[in-house]
Amino acid sequence: MGGLWDAIWQGVVINSMTNGLLALYDLLFNNFFLALAVFTLITRLVMLPLNVRQQRSTIKMQQMQPQIKEIQSKYKDNPQKMQEEFQKIGYSPTEQLGGCLVLFIQFPIFIGLYRAIQYVLASSPQAMFELSERVWLNVFSLESVTALLPVKNTFLWLNLAQPDPTYILPILVVATMFISQRLLTPTPQTTKNKKPAKDGKKEPEDAAASMQKQMMYTMPLMFGFFSLQFPAGVSIYFIFANLISMLQGWLARRSVAEERAELERSKAAKASESALSTAGAGSSTSQNDVAESRPPSTKKAKRKSKSKNR
Amino acid sequence: MKGHIGEVNLYKTKRMRFHPALILFIVTALFLSACGIQANTNWPGMSALGDQVYVAYGPEVVAVNIPDQEIVWRFPEEPSRILYLAAPSVYDDLVVLGDYGEGQGALRPGVKSSLYYFSDSEAAASGTPRDVQTSPSISEDRIIAPVLQTEDAIYLGTADNKVFGIERRPGGGVQWTLETEGSIWGQPTAQDGTVFVTSMDRSVYALDGATGEQKWKNTLSGAISAKPFVADDVVYVASYDAKVHAFDAQSGDELWSSDATNWIWDMPAVTDSAVFYADNGGKVFSVDRETGNPLWDKDVANPVIARPLVQDDVVYIATGRADRNATTGTIFALSAEDGSQLWTVETSSPVFTSPVIVDDALVVFIQDTENGNAPLLNVYELESGILRWSMPLQNNDQEQ
Q1: Is residue B19 scored above 50 in pLDDT?
Q2: What is the ipTM, given to two decimal places?
Q3: Which of 206-245 (B) contact A at CB < 8 A?
């Protein structure tokens, strides 16, 4: 079983990535920086459906927190009713597990990428020999591999096979990861004036929010620390991946906000229709009066939607 | 009530508190265990002088007297985190070796490598070098190529693309530096005041040994990790372009080139009449020394990384592995005349470190895979290939 797993891991994951990276290096004018950028983009595109789904789910969950909390406190003694209410607002606790799944899928890909980058940069004879064992000679000819290797490992001031001695890349890793984490982890809509629980303990949601906040700071620092030890090529991968995550996060936020605004608009339209029909049935009221007679909640929802769109 | 308990559990799952530090610990542990530093390591190096062989196998460098079957000295005296993988250079009692780079601390990126100098005889007297001089942090990257010593200079090529000419004395000053466009993985060679250096930038450089001034440079179509071999004003260079090239040592003009089927990792062996080389495709070749015309070739099945050796009309070839799962290597003794097989012996792991010949013995460094990659020195009879003796190199302190 171990042998099979090793064959899949080494043969399918790492070798595919190593050869893919090498092919891009070949196509992109033997520029490893460009190859790395396009490679990150491709892997992120492959993961895009899963990532967007996870990001949208995270943002939606965060935005639903006030309603979830309300339902939880209202029906804390009636789990069945609680579940029904959750279903009504479109909340599913199992959906949160999907986020973990995405992480679990991403992690081996990330490690595979890290190894592929190290193999392609081949900074010692042994590493070069291992690379030669991994190159698919039915895809590349021996002549083309000979022409490609060793990969030119210098870019600007960097030796891509060594950590960046100027600290610029580690700082960029921390900054981009922090921003991307911030975009992916919207500020929870917890009430500022909320009193602490009687026993002094934090509410579970507060604990989760606090954990997310801690992660928002510790993850970038941890990856920044990794960047001090790892080849600059890996740091560049981190930076590209973070930039793409930032873009994804921004798109996911915008799409959730639009969806929400759409929902609010349709709710408002429905409410207005029902108000019209009620007024039509009772007396001959003017159009302006109908507008004035809209329930306050609808107006509030509109304002909320507008502010979100902004 | 259907699904009731499960539903409650689900909500409880959501309420579970994961301490961020725990998550970070798990992520870090997974990351580091999965990534490791394996991709950055290298094979051990071995050199020989007289009756002694010097093996840099990672945690330490060991000098072994082959006829006496005993370890003469070990370096360093105390275990450290620094690795030594480039074969030591020993000349006129001075041992010079470079390390494989030392991390500069958790918050300081990069590695720096140093040179170490000590007396061979003094080290032998006390079992470990006592008076070790250093040229600290001479390189901003690893030292992969063994150092070359001549009567009055030390030449060093580093993985950060530099060649140094250094005054030959312990802690000697750098006289000149030349930057190439690729890492230096092969030991330089010197003849009549000229130093020949090969680089992974695909070029062979001929430099003035005193000033570092470039006399000529010849660029090939493949990278070069092999040490150049110089004899009778001809420089023989093996390359990843699947060829051995012969250059005029004075002008750099190519005299001839001869084909292989795959990359050639290390330098050829040269006799009065022939040049012998082996490639990554598992083939051994013999060509005419004057013309490069093929004489014979022989299939040894597995890739050959170690340089061929030739003595008394016998060519010795040690093979690496055929694939990542292979756990054995093979040593072949071939007739220099026609390539016919004289004897063959299987080793307990693939051979990547070039063997050396001491008197009538073939000394082979093995990382014994059957015993968890324990470093082992195997000594074979040159005549028959019979294993004469075997010696584990690992220090008990290192083992712990």
Answers
A1: yes
A2: 0.89
A3: 221-223, 225, 240-242
